[in-house]
Amino acid sequence: MFLTSINNDKVKFWEKLHNKKFRDINQLFLIEDEHLIKEALKYNIVKEIITTDETKTYAIPTYYVNDKIMKKISNQESGATEIAVTEFLKTREILGNILVLDNLQDPGNLGTIIRSAVAFNFDSIILSDNSVDLYNPKVVRASEGMLFHINIVRCNIIEFLKKLDEDYKIIGTDVLKGKNIKDIKFNKCAICIGNEGNGLSKEVKELCNDFAYIKMNDKCESLNAGVSASILMYEVANE
Amino acid sequence: MFLTSINNDKVKFWEKLHNKKFRDINQLFLIEDEHLIKEALKYNIVKEIITTDETKTYAIPTYYVNDKIMKKISNQESGATEIAVTEFLKTREILGNILVLDNLQDPGNLGTIIRSAVAFNFDSIILSDNSVDLYNPKVVRASEGMLFHINIVRCNIIEFLKKLDEDYKIIGTDVLKGKNIKDIKFNKCAICIGNEGNGLSKEVKELCNDFAYIKMNDKCESLNAGVSASILMYEVANE
User: Fold this and answer.
1) Is residue A64 included in any domain, yes or no?
2) Pairwise CB contact (< 8 Å): A121 & B221
3) Closest Cα of chain B to A40: distance in Å?
4) Closest by Cβ to A149, choosing from B149, B182, B219
5) Do both B127 and B148 map to the same domain?
6) What is the nearest CA distance from A8 to chain B, expressed in angstroms?
7) pLDDT in tens, A188-237
8) Considering only CB atoms, which residues of chain B are within 8 Å of chain A?
9) Which of A18, A31, A39, A226 could form a disulfide with A145 if both were Cys (CB 3.0 to 4.6 A apart)?
């Protein structure tokens, strides 16, 4: 279908998907990068394609638009050439190692962490209710498509950790009272990473069975949250 | 001194420091975060303070401005309350392990890498001419003040690597033909990290003595550049 008016209801609907609440109500988000769209198509979660390229055809509903409309729908300043309207990712049962993110705020950090979690064979990421939205366009882009390869659950992490199977070791991070990550035996673990500025919340700390730290120079108070999470997962993968 | 006009020459000068070329000509950059300013003051590199708080006094030239002027000078949308006009950092002789950044583009990545380099006792960072500017405000912020604690040299990295002492091992990253990082003996090393999208340039690869990779799941093609650099430096520090 060809759309030419910026006031078309479809265009207005897609534009509203920039807003988290509207995404949540409709359980839909936008993907703009070409290789991410290809990835999403493999999973049969793309509902509609919006493109400026009239030569392209897809087996799903496709809308051909002009540059002006595309610029309105795109999150990028320079605009995109193709956008996929995509269903929220399904969640599944938790089976292996878990990363728990407690009030993580930076979208680049979440994308980076998703990428590392897949690299280091983590089974699931549990995202606290107050963390950055998984479907924020910057998260989707920074994940480099890895968000399709891992189970990501958004929930109340306190309730989640309380109900977690006893065979899981819940490990927090603590620069002062932690054990060197190299000295911790893992088996099945839930590693908890806190907020960029304030670290783990008191409530999560109280539920931890053990604390880990990454040995570093005294001049440096802490690492970037994405780096900390990645090094801890790397150590678990290489134990 | 009190400044009230947005057209004051001083205000215009500071505003121009948003521009890389103007920073390079004047060898000055702006710091906006309060704790970074405190850090910079310790190093005697702050030339002027600009503040909206008339109760504050400093031993260096201080300019009291209104919110309108502050907003014009600040890089943050919400504006700042205090800004330090700071001299470029001095470089020194290279003594220990080096991280070489080849066309790194993302300011958040550079800030994160500076932080990790200090944490893992690296001596110097060598930044290629075509990498993101060290004094980009996002780099300064993401470094969390760690840029004051490490020697950072911007230069032609090809010339630099060619002249490097023979006792340094130049190590590139290569997912396909690299050795597992765990199996490499380091001693004195120069670890080379490439561009976010394209990895290391051909010219740098040709100068490497060895290549390393970080073992990861096949689903994941690569890690975020800041994470890769951090894990490699972590391994060197913990060898």
Assistant:
1) yes
2) no
3) 14
4) B219
5) yes
6) 32
7) 899 999 999 999 999 999 999 999 999 999 999 899 999 999 999 999 99
8) 108, 111-112, 115-116, 118-121, 142, 144, 146, 149, 182, 214-217, 219-224, 226-227, 230-231, 234, 237-238
9) A39
For the entire predicted model, the pTM comes to 0.93
Dihedral pair phi/psi, residue B201, rounded to 5°:
-75, 155
In contact, B171 and B184? CB cutoff 8 Å: yes
Cα separations in angstroms, B170 against B157, B160, B163, B191: 12, 11, 12, 6
Pairing of strands B62-65, B82-87: unpaired
Q: Is the ipTM of this complex over 0.90?
A: yes
Within a domain: residue B93? no
Q: What angle do CA B159, B121, B224 make, to 5 degrees?
A: 70
What gap in Å lies between CA B114 and CA B105, rounded to an integer?
14
Which tokens hold the place of A229?
Answer: 């999470």
Domain check: are B135 and B187 in the same one?
yes
Q: Which two tokens stand for residue A113?
A: 């962490």
Is residue A127 assigned to a domain? Answer: yes
- Rounded Cα distance between A119 and A218, Å, is 29
Mean pLDDT calculated for residue range B149-154 = 96
Nearest to A217 among B121, B215, B231 (CB): B121
What residue in B sits closest to A145 (Cα-Cα)?
B220
